Amino acid sequence: MRRRLRALAAALFALPLAFAAAPSAHAADPTTMTSGFYVDPDSSPKRWVAANPGDGRAAAINTSIANTPMARWFGSWSGTIGTAAGAYVGAADQRDKLPILVAYNIYHRDHCGGHSGGGAASPAAYADWIAQFAGGIGARPAIVILEPDSLGDYGCMTQAQIDEREGMLTGALTQFNRQAPNTWVYLDAGNPRWADAATMAQRLHEAGLRQAHGFSLNVSNYFTTAENTAYGNAVNSQLSARYGYTKPFVVDTSRNGNGSDGQWCNPAGRRIGTPTRTGGGAEMLLWIKTPGESDGNCGVGTGSTAGQFLPEVAYKMIHGY
């Protein structure tokens, strides 16, 4: 396994708040163990471009989306999860690149929203799945976004269900600590309009944030980087005041180039945002949601299913209309 050191300016990783950050769950920094982010060779836009080379939209989608590093999402569709995750991080490692993975299989996933409902069959099944996920990554460098929406999706849940969910997330973080020492795990914290900063700080802490490297914001949403940075800083202020620590955060910028119009499910007029870099108050700006993949049967994606690649939506996102 090659380890190519990359010097990253410390200032770009520093939180703008004057609080002492909690130690990372892992001593290793996967960004210094690789030579940049991994471009998924089998992403949905890559597959579409390969299958439609004569389409007038193909060149723009290939240049602006398909060749940009972005996350691969893993769930029940991934087959044997340890094998799938291991193959993906192994392919990235062979190229000395850093892969971004999303774990999206928690029991009662999207319980209140419904468009992406599903997940593991039980808490015990999830515990087994996530243990295999972490084991598949092993010692190779990776970034994992842990269960988007899971801490924002509380509106219809009972306290017992909330406790159960937070227990599953804590257990997941424990598995990554044990089995994936060179992985940075970001526990998802929703977006600026879902829960106020104090509420989200409490949810993060109760779900085991101390064990994670940090938290993620704006996954599959459209809020500007500035809005997310302000929210992330506010969450850290609450973490510091209540629990005595802060954590770095990342922002999903895949679809936030035009900001939000208040709609979350396939709104029109959105635009791709700045991909995969450091700075701006967040630790990293990442493409976590694939631009052009549907949020569900809604908005400009009416008639589609969640995760389905829609080339016309992707093409319009490049140009912002």
TrEMBL record:
Family annotation (InterPro entries): Beta_cellobiohydrolase (IPR016288), Beta_cellobiohydrolase_sf (IPR036434), Glyco_hydro_6_CS (IPR001524)
Range of residues in the leader sequence: 1-27
Keyword Signal annotated: yes
Domain of life according to the entry: Bacteria
Active-site annotation: 149 (proton donor)
Pfam families for this protein: Glyco_hydro_6
EC number: 3.2.1.-
Alphabetically ordered keywords of this record: Carbohydrate metabolism, Cellulose degradation, Disulfide bond, Glycosidase, Hydrolase, Polysaccharide degradation, Signal
UniProt-listed SUPFAM superfamilies: Glycosyl hydrolases family 6, cellulases
Protein family per UniProt: Belongs to the glycosyl hydrolase family 6.
Protein name (record): Glucanase
Species of origin: Streptomyces pharetrae CZA14
